[in-house]
């Protein structure tokens, strides 16, 4: 196995490893002893899910989140510089995409260290694939403003970009505020604008539907406390 910083995708929910991750990923994981992770507990659970026989206590974990300083992140790469492969694990989906893992990847690139992204589920890509929207030009905006006036302004701006730039617009919300987000979309967007709601992607209860804003009214699914991506298009 080549020495590198391996970006290790994880499942998007309580999905079997075999359903969404190639067996090659497990081979790579078994050769790594140093992991940079968003959450140590969930990373340990994921690794046990990949290989029940893995010796978790022999592994070293480095926490990487919004509170980690650039100095700490840079120091995390010492094993890689010394010739030992390292892995980056996100909380869900692909590391470094809408994820703090991007910070350590940027440092690795500046230091001219080899970075290897492995195949796995990305809710952003999968939702674009299933939406029927423009897959050649799309933008992910993360979380929208919470303040009602700012959120309304942002939704209208994203909708306008969908029309003027022919570009799919994606964003997310904290799961317990999903229904408030849908209400705001229905209130602020044009009746003919298309909205795709993609929830629990790759899970057994996956829900992905595209309708015009006017057609969603009175036909909303129960999205309480589940991860969703919202997509707007003309």
Automatic annotation (TrEMBL):
InterPro entries: 4pyrrol_Methylase_sf (IPR035996), 4pyrrole_Mease_sub1 (IPR014777), 4pyrrole_Mease_sub2 (IPR014776), rRNA_ssu_MeTfrase_I (IPR008189). SUPFAM superfamilies: Tetrapyrrole methylase. Keywords: Methyltransferase, Transferase. Gene3D superfamilies: Cobalt-precorrin-4 Transmethylase, Domain 1 (3.40.1010.10), Methyltransferase, Cobalt-precorrin-4 Transmethylase, Domain 2 (3.30.950.10). GO terms for biological process: methylation. GO terms for molecular function: methyltransferase activity. This is S-adenosylmethionine-dependent methyltransferase. It comes from Bacteroides faecalis. The lineage of its organism: Bacteria, Pseudomonadati, Bacteroidota, Bacteroidia, Bacteroidales.
């Amino acid at each position: 196995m080549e020495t590198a910083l391996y970006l290790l995708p994880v499942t998007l929910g309580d999905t079997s490893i075999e359903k969404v991750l190639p067996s090659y990923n497990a081979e790579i994981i078994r050769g790594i002893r140093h992991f940079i992770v968003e959450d140590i507990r969930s990373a340990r659970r994921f690794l046990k899910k990949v290989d029940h026989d893995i010796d978790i206590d022999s592994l070293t974990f480095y926490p990487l989140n919004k509170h980690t300083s650039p100095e700490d992140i840079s120091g995390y790469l010492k094993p890689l510089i010394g010739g030992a492969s390292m892995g980056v694990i996100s909380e869900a989906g692909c590391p470094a995409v809408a994820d703090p893992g991007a910070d350590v990847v940027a440092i690795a690139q500046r230091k001219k260290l080899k970075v290897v992204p492995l195949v796995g589920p990305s809710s952003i890509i999968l939702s674009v694939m299933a939406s029927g929207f423009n897959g050649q030009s799309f933008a992910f905006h993360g979380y929208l403003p919470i303040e009602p006036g700012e959120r309304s302004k942002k939704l209208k701006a994203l909708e306008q970009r969908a029309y003027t730039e022919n570009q799919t617009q994606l964003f997310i919300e904290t799961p317990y505020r999903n229904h408030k987000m849908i209400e705001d979309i229905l209130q602020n967007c044009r009746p003919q604008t298309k909205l795709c709601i993609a929830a629990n992607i790759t899970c057994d209860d996956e829900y992905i539907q595209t309708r015009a804003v006017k057609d969603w009214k009175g036909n909303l699914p129960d999205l309480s406390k589940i991860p969703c991506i919202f997509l707007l298009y003309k």
